[in-house]
Design brief:
- Helix content is 32%, strand content 23%.
- By secondary structure, it is of the alpha/beta class.
- The protein folds into two domains: 2-120, NAD(P)-binding Rossmann-like Domain (Rossmann fold, 3-Layer(aba) Sandwich), CATH 3.40.50.720; 122-332, Dihydrodipicolinate Reductase, domain 2 (2-Layer Sandwich), CATH 3.30.360.10.
- The protein is globular, with a radius of gyration of 21 Å.
- It starts with a strand and ends in a 10-residue tail after the last strand.
- The relative contact order is 0.15.
Length: 338
């Protein structure tokens, strides 16, 4: 499958290019970038051609798919145009800023029978797969509360970097749609969406401690349709903060901090904490799942619902923060069983 790389704007663009190069089924043929100087330099590094005209990329019969790592505000137009030209699409989270925009993208993708994949990497990792297995087996009973935290120190100022080590454009709200929550907060959002089920309502607080133009610290309280509650925490201001995932239930508790996993369950023959002896193997990456879906029709584990609900929580949290109220997801057009 021949692909074009569309923009080096995102910090993960280089990672996706490397993964594509390592995949025997993918061949990078060209680069486009809204910044021609950056694009030409990247194309030269990769040993491929630079195409300054995005329209010509889409019109090229040589190109089967595109890897989109533009600013998020460009996603909708670029992805819909790619789909309308019959190109398969791999892109970075989030897909779009609103549920409505996501629906427009899905319509174009389905109408043109192309494969769309949004990278939600932690859904393929061992710790999540174990947590899902624990929930599915009922080892925690009824889930009552979920807490998930993913944070780093990307906006903590230093002498060398007064705004931290994140790229300057990560603070351009028009391009990014927000700050810590829409970017890093995506991970706890899609994890809690999976583990907690359908969301009924959201209350969000997005703070700007260093007044960089976007939120650098955020907390979102989630009410699930099951009656369970959840807390999503993220930020660009935490040094040494481990990834944390906690699930509390009527018959057990699961605690995951970094690579440390422990569980306590009424279904075990002990009241002590237990460290699992075996963990599930990680599953294929999002890019490999994208390739398999195109070549063999395999159904990806990352679904349309995962992608849509990620945007829905972000949109609801932003609305909650700006309007100072609890937001029902039904307000965004998300169907709910309530």
């Amino acid at each position: 499958m021949n692909v074009a790389l569309l923009s080096k704007w995102h910090v993960h663009a280089v990672d996706y290019a490397r993964e594509a190069q390592e995949n025997e089924s993918i061949s990078i043929k060209m680069v486009w970038d809204e910044n021609p100087e950056r694009g030409r330099e990247w194309a030269e590094e990769l040993g491929v051609s630079f195409q300054p005209d995005l329209k010509k990329v889409f019109e090229s019969s040589e190109i089967d798919g595109v890897i989109v790592t533009t600013a998020t505000n460009r996603h909708k137009d670029i992805i819909i145009t790619a789909a309308n030209h019959g190109k398969h699409i791999f892109t970075e989270k989030v897909l779009a800023f609103t549920v409505q925009e996501c629906e427009e993208i899905f319509y174009a993708v389905e109408k043109n029978n192309v494969q769309l994949m949004v990278n939600l990497p932690r859904l393929t990792e061992t710790f999540y797969l174990y947590a899902q297995e624990v929930v599915d087996k009922g080892l925690l009973g009824d889930i009552t509360y979920i807490r998930c935290r993913v944070a780093h120190n990307g906006s903590v100022p230093t002498k060398e970097n007064p705004k931290g080590w994140l790229p300057e454009h990560f603070y351009h709200k028009e391009e990014c749609g927000g700050g810590a929550l829409i970017d890093l907060g995506a991970h706890p959002i899609y994890l809690t969406n999976r583990l907690g089920g359908k969301v009924k309502a959201v209350t969000g607080k997005l703070n700007e401690l260093y007044h960089l133009g976007v939120d650098d610290n955020a907390v979102v309280m989630v009410e699930f349709e099951s009656g369970a509650m959840g807390m999503i925490e993220t930020g660009f201001l935490s040094y040494g903060s481990p990834q944390q995932l906690e699930l509390y239930g009527t018959e057990g508790t699961l605690m995951i901090e970094g690579e440390n996993i422990r569980i306590k369950s009424k279904h075990f023959n002990t009241d002590e904490w237990v460290t699992p002896e075996e963990l599930p193997e990680p599953i294929y990456s999002a890019m490999e799942q994208w390739v398999q879906a195109i070549q063999t029709g395999n159904k990806p584990s990352i679904t349309k619902e995962d992608i849509l609900n990620l945007t829905a929580i972000n949109e609801a949290a932003a609305t909650s923060n700006s309007e100072g109220r609890r937001v029902l997801l039904s307000e965004l057009g998300i169907k709910q069983g309530i």
